[in-house]
Amino acid sequence: MGIEPLKVIDRLKGMIADQSLRIAMLEAQVEQLQAAQASPSESEADAEAADGESR
Q1: CA angle (24, 25, 29) in 5-degree steps
Q2: 3 in the Ramachandran plot: left (φ > 0), alpha (ψ -120 to 50) or beta?
Q3: Cβ-count burial of 43 within 10 angstroms (0-12 exposed, 13-18 middle, 19+ buried)?
Q4: Which of 31, 34, 29 shows the shortest CA–CA distance to 50?
Q5: Staple 36 to which of 7, 12, 28, 43, CB 3.0 to 4.6 Å?
Q6: Measured between alpha carbons, how far is 22 from 25 in angstroms, rounded to an integer?
Q7: pLDDT on residue 39
Q8: Do 15 and 8 form a contact (C-beta atoms < 8 A)?
Q9: pLDDT tens digit string along 12-52?
């Protein structure tokens, strides 16, 4: 048999973990953007902080 189920499962778990991390990062960005909209006076500082984190 060429396909080893455990290797496939491990690979899928890794892919799911990667996507979960990406989702968490996007949720954090959404929260930052919502906070920036709620307080326009601080939006520039929030935007700079978000830009620094994305690199």
Answers
A1: 115
A2: beta
A3: middle
A4: 29
A5: 43
A6: 5
A7: 81
A8: no
A9: 999 999 999 999 999 999 999 999 998 866 556 666 666 66
Q: Token match 């307080």: residue?
A: 39
pTM, full prediction: 0.57
Give the pLDDT confidence score for residue 7 in this predicted structure. Answer: 96
* pLDDT for the residue 12: 97
**What amino acid occupies position 32?**
Q
> Looking up tokens 């499962």, which residue turns up?
9
CA distance 51 to 46: 9
Here the tokens at position 51 are 């830009």
